[in-house]
Every structure is written in structure tokens, then in C-alpha cells.
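The instructor's notes for this session suggest beginning with a concrete chain rather than abstract definitions. Hand out the sequence below and ask the class to guess, before any prediction is shown, which regions might be ordered.
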Amino acid sequence: MDPIIKKQRIAALILKEKMDELSKSEKEELTSWLQASPKNEKIYVRLQEKSFSEDIARYQQISTARGLDNYRRRYNIQKNSRLLGKWYWAAAVAAFVIGISTLFFYQEAPPTVAQTTISPGSSKAMLILNNGEIISLSEKNKTEIVATEELSIRNEGSQLRYTVSENTKNEQANNYNELIVPKGGEFTLTLSDGTKVWLNSQSKIKYPVIFNDITREVYLEGEAYFEVTKDTQHPFHVNVKNGVSIEVLGTSFNVRSYMDENTIETVLEKGSVRMSQGKDAVILIPGNKAVYLPNEPIRLTTVNTELYTAWRHGQYIFMNESVENILKQLSRWYDIEVFYSNEAAKSVVFSGDVRKYDNINTLLEAMEILGGLHFKINGKTLIVSYNN
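After discussion, reveal the predicted structure:
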């Protein structure tokens, strides 16, 4: 077993032991590890003096109270289902292995991350009006941008809201605005029909000021989470690159379509959507992920949707992800460039989470402690190396 995965596994077993959730085979696995080395036993004894209350409280809040119940309702899974147990275990490892593993292995390899901190992003965006005017949006400049009898556009600090009157004549249905969120930014948009869109870093969306009488269409580049207002007479379409389109009537889903990534992903939490490219199409039900790659059929799988939508709730969760994929996602939010001293660093696999509004150093320290990775911060550049 990869040494990093092994360390994460032992750390997770100790967490489960604290919660009295170890199975018989897991108890035997932990005992075997304890007996393998006097050093392991000393680490274990010291660890018993630590409090896991905060980690367990976070686990119960995120997984037990919300995630498990939601997942069970979506799929009508019985409480003792093997699938539910698998998801329960995955959520625990993904959400808390960083904190537990950092405590566990700190004395083996103290982190070398420089004291320079990389701060998280904030609410900021640029709005481009139909006439070409560019307006900078942030929490500091709350203002009414447009105010007429038919239409109101208001910046509410971290959200841009479009409101139309009941007697609108849709005279602006062909007028498009564009909302651009830079690296290190996020913003929320409420469209004229009440649909709400959360835009992730380095994303942009183009949309009509007021929807027409036939359909509701928007154009996305990057990542966004949609809560679409139900209107069976006017389907909602999200158009992305390569001619891919997602059609919905009323639902909650995540779309990821960055220009520097080959894949286009749609993850559905509620409702039903249709993802298509040309004649190829799939229908998603809650818990499904659809993935499009050029020149390949659209693939449909069942996933834990929280791994893909946690960013909207202030958290990034990674489950068996490569360091390259993790840092690509985080580089957008923290507005940094990532440089790899050697190719081996890119393929190291890691599980854990980071709170979106914390600085990145805690995560980097954990990744160093868990084995082989080293980080150096030079201004807004993160230099990554790996010694196997």
C-alpha cells in the first residue's frame, strides 16, 4: 500500500475507534499496526491524550445530520445498506483525515511550509452590460445599477439581483449581460426568472436581461451551481463549450466546464436534467454525474454529490484526488500559480478537506506531513516537489 494511503488509513481507524465504530476486522488491523513497532505504540499512547471533540462534532454535523439522511431519502436506501455504509466511511475519511493525520504524524516530519500565508478569495466580479459598459462588483460598492419600471439590477454586495415587473413586455429579451468572476473570486447571481446561480472562481456566465417567451438560455464558462425556478412552459438551458447543453425544468445541479480542462461535468442534487452533445444524450436523476469528453459517449455514474458541491457551502472536499487536480482547483480560489519541481509530485493521491475561507497553509502542512511532498511559497507562486 502507498505509504501516504497507509498513514491516512491508520489515522481514519483511530478516528473511528474514538467514535466506537470499528468493525472486528478494523480492530485487528489497528492492533496489528500497534504491534508492528514500539514507535507506533508510543504515537498511539500520546494520541490518546488529544481531544477529537471538534472533529467528531464537525463529522456529525456534516455527515450524520444532513448527508446521510439526504442520501437515504434520494435513493430509498435502508439504514443497513452496504452502499450507505460505504458512503458513510468515504465522507468521514474525506472530511477529517487532514486534521487527524496532522496530529498523528506531526512528530514524524514537521512541516517546512514557509510562514508566508496565501489568503483565500472573496466576493468580486465584473458586470458587462449590453452597451459594453463595465462595472466592478464587490461587497464595498452595493448599488442600484439599473432602475426602471420594467427592470431593476442591484448589486447587493456578494450577489447581483435582476428583478422584473409583472407587466414586463420583454423588450430587453435580446439584451445580454455578462458576469465575470476572476481568480480569487466568487459571486451569486439571481436571474430575472428567480433562478439562482453561484459562480465559482475563474468563471463567467452570459444571460439575457429578461428571458423571452420561448426558452431560458444561458452560456457558462467555468463552474456554477444552479437552483432553477420551475417553469414547465419555458425549459432552462445551460450551454457550455463543445456544443454541450444541459436542459432542465426546475432543479439543483452543478456544472463544471473550464477551458483548461478536457472534461465537462454535470452533477445533479435534485430534480432531473438532460445533458446532450449532438445526438448523444443522457438523463440524470439525483446522485448522478454525467461526464463528457471530446469524441467519447457521455458517461453516467452515481456519486456522493457533496464532494462536487461542497465549494458552494464554504468547503473543498477531496477523495482520492491527485495533487495536480487538487491544486488546480485551489489555485483558482487562492489566485496562485502552481509550479512542479518534478512530475512525480503531480500524481500523489490525497484525501482531505479545506475550509474555503481559511488560508491554504493548513492544508499544505498536512500534505507535507502525510508523506514526501514539500512546498515553497514565492509571492503568488506555489512551488511543489516530491521525494518518494
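Then share the key points. Residues 61-96 have pLDDT under 50 and may be disordered. The helical segments are 3-18, 24-36, 38-47, 53-75, 82-105, 306-309, 323-334, 361-369.
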